[in-house]
Amino acid sequence: MKNSIKNIYPLSFPWQTQDPFLFCVYHLDHYPKGNEEMGPAASLEGRNLGNDFTTKDGWRMYHGQTIPGFPYHPHRGFETITIVNKGYCDHSDSLGAAGRFGEGDVQWMTAGRGVQHSEMFPLLKTEAENPLELFQIWLNLPKANKFVEPHFAMLWHEDIPVVNANGTTVKVMAGNFNENKAPKPAPNSWAADPENEVAVWNIHLEPNTEFTLPASNKEVHRSLYFYEGDQCSVDGEKIAPNHGMDLQSEMEVVLKNGAKKASFLMLQGKPINEPVAKYGPFVMNTDQEIQQAMQEYQLTQFGGWPWPYSDNVHDRKKGRFAHYPDGTLVEK
Question: CATH number, domain at 104?
Fold first, then answer.
């Protein structure tokens, strides 16, 4: 194993992460044509509805009963970064915010002191299949920001830099690459301070090409996930697909691709270096704070649920949009 690679591991569900990241999961579902309810125009027989994480016929319903996705659930103490490369996600939350995003858009949500939201995957096409490719990343908040006001932001794909270089494309969703800066993250995010060197990049290599990851600060944690392709080498070490690597971030790292297009996700950031206490959708610093979060959620529901359904979706005819808590509406 080369000195630039700290360790190599198979990708599980979810993927292994390093501080300041808490969680990363990759969803790839080959959904069929949609029905009138924006669910699958296919039988749901044999599925464990409400908890269907088994890839049957190439897709999963997750916690959805009629529409795939994740009906309302709470979060506290961290941020979610949701990247939808293919298909669509319908967002609704306890702040009254809503949105439909996809085809490369990114949603950045700071849970802070507490929020409920739903993430549903409406199958909008009735005459064609509805593939979905999605990453969800959990980025921790430091103790000082665990109780900030919740915040909801949309990073539209038209505003996200995609850098093309010698058969490689780098989509810069956080951080910067070759002086191409990502849109601003949520204001209280660990990523909002450039000193923390947070980066979220989606890297695609054409067949038989190579790419050099630039060096960063040696205090930064860097993980690289090879999730699509045939075979590649990382500083001369052969890597099979569906493997992750923790890298020495102070060193340049050369990626050489094989005969098929290769895709990687890179997560990087300065560690927060604080105690982490986790229970389901709550991430705090102590077990006592977790207990407090559970009690507050039982009492307040983090503001309640202003939508008619727990698995709320928006009108099929709506395009990509974001409706913010202050009433601002952005349509794409």
Answer: 2.60.120.10
Q: C-alpha angle with apex 275: 150 to 135, nearest 5 degrees? A: 50
- The tens digit of pLDDT for each residue in 91-116 reads 999 999 999 999 999 999 999 999 99
Q: How far apart are CA 1 and CA 129, in angstroms?
A: 42
Pairwise CA distance, residues 286 & 253, whole Å: 37
Q: Does any domain span residue 51?
A: no
Tokens standing for 304?
């309640």
Residue 224's beta-bridge partner residues? 245, 266
Whole-prediction pTM: 0.96
Kindly tell me if the per-residue pLDDT of 218 is higher than 80: no
Which pairs with CB-CB distance under 8 Å and at least 24 residues apart come from 284-293? 284/76, 284/77, 284/146, 285/143, 285/146, 289/77, 289/146, 293/76, 293/77, 293/114
Token duo for residue 207: 């067949």
Tell which residue, 164, 260, 263, has the closest CA to residue 207.
Answer: 260
Domain that holds residue 233: 160-274
Kindly give, in sequence order, each residue whose CB lies less than 8 Å from that of residue 43, ignoring residues fewer than 6 positions away: none
